[in-house]
Write a structure and sequence with these properties.
Elements: E1 2-8, E2 12-22, E3 25-35, H1 42-45, H2 50-69, E4 74-79, H3 81-84, H4 89-100, E5 104-106, H5 109-123, E6 130-136, E7 141-147, E8 150-157, H6 161-168, H7 176-189, H8 191-196, E9 204-208, H9 210-229, E10 240-242, H10 243-253, H11 258-265, H12 269-288, E11 293-296
Parallel strand pairs: 1-4, 4-5, 6-9, 9-11
Antiparallel strand pairs: 1-2, 2-3, 6-7, 7-8, 10-11
Helix pairs in contact: 2-4, 6-12, 7-12, 9-12, 10-12, 11-12
């Protein structure tokens, strides 16, 4: 059976078309991702703008056509933080259905954490291992603890790379005071999961989302460049993000302006805008949960 899934996030909208072989295995036939920035100003103002809705609907129309071309028998469409927090969410859902025929389900934060954690447990961890997963979105961050496909703990915090950037980082590069206030917000947000997971144990820690993938890719790029400068063989690509290296990268990123961040990390313009906040969220999460190394999960 061919299925399509559309994820309407705060920074990007993603499509996956898959051929489900049985209940727990599938082959991905097509992936698409477009940076729509639905959460731009929405998370701060609490309302989806007309331009944001139009951008999203244009993307969804294209994704529906792709899904139908790939003969998907069903299209599941979900929305997360930017729509969840918007006062005009019902209007958005109604307008999407009117113009595209797609029915959007708005996920609660806990349900979002459960679905992300389940996917990470199946796709990024060893069988029977207990896995903790961190997912950093544009408008929220989810933490999930899973064992054998069963959720043990789920958390969702109103803490996203887009939202924090717009709320705290008003200059480029940010001032020391802006960065201090952002870190304080991150620290406070992770107090509950830190407290409730204090005695929890896991064998693996994984990280999902474009922010974490970008941070991992940046660390690999810098490591490869360092090996070349030292005339050493380039090491095999790794998927791990050590906390010590992440902290050093975050310090460096905070000293650079937008152009400098793009050049250092080879990021898109949109990703370079939010990478400082995203890196601080990941560092804060790892410190709060005593995670020394996290593995990228795509």
């Amino acid at each position: 059976m061919k299925l399509a899934a559309i994820d309407i996030g705060s920074n990007s909208i993603k499509l996956a078309v898959a051929d489900a072989v049985d209940s727990d295995s599938f082959a991905v036939l097509r992936r698409e991702r477009d940076v729509i920035r639905l959460g731009h100003e929405t998370l701060r103002k609490g309302r989806l703008s007309h331009s944001a809705i139009d951008r999203a609907i244009g993307c969804l129309q294209r994704y529906k056509a792709i899904a139908e071309t790939n003969r998907a028998e069903a299209i599941v469409t979900v929305a997360t933080a930017s729509v969840r927090e918007a006062h005009n969410a019902a209007q958005f859902v109604k307008e999407v259905e009117r113009q595209t025929g797609l029915r959007v389900e708005i996920l609660s934060g806990v349900e979002e954490a459960r679905l992300i954690g389940l996917a990470a447990a199946h796709g990024c961890s060893l069988k029977a291992a207990t896995n903790i997963n961190i997912d950093i979105g544009g408008g929220s961050t989810e933490v999930s603890l899973f064992r054998n496909g069963t959720s043990l703990s789920l958390f969702s915090m109103k803490l996203g790379a887009v939202g924090l950037t717009e709320s705290y980082l008003n200059s480029d590069p940010p001032s020391a005071k802006q960065l201090k206030n952002l870190k304080a917000e991150v620290h406070a947000a992770f107090e509950r999961p830190r407290r409730e997971l204090r005695d929890a144990r896991w064998q693996q820690a994984s990280g999902t989302s474009g922010t974490i993938l970008s941070l991992g890719a940046t660390l690999r790029k810098l490591a490869d460049a360092d090996d070349e400068r030292k005339h050493q063989p380039v090491q095999p690509t790794e998927t791990d993000i050590p906390l010590s290296q992440l902290a050093a990268l975050n310090t460096k990123l905070a000293t650079l302006d937008h152009a400098g961040r793009r050049a250092l990390a080879e990021l898109t313009g949109q990703r370079a805008e939010i990478i400082i906040a995203g890196g601080q969220i990941l560092e804060g999460a790892m410190r709060a949960l005593s995670v020394n190394v996290i593995r990228n999960c795509n």
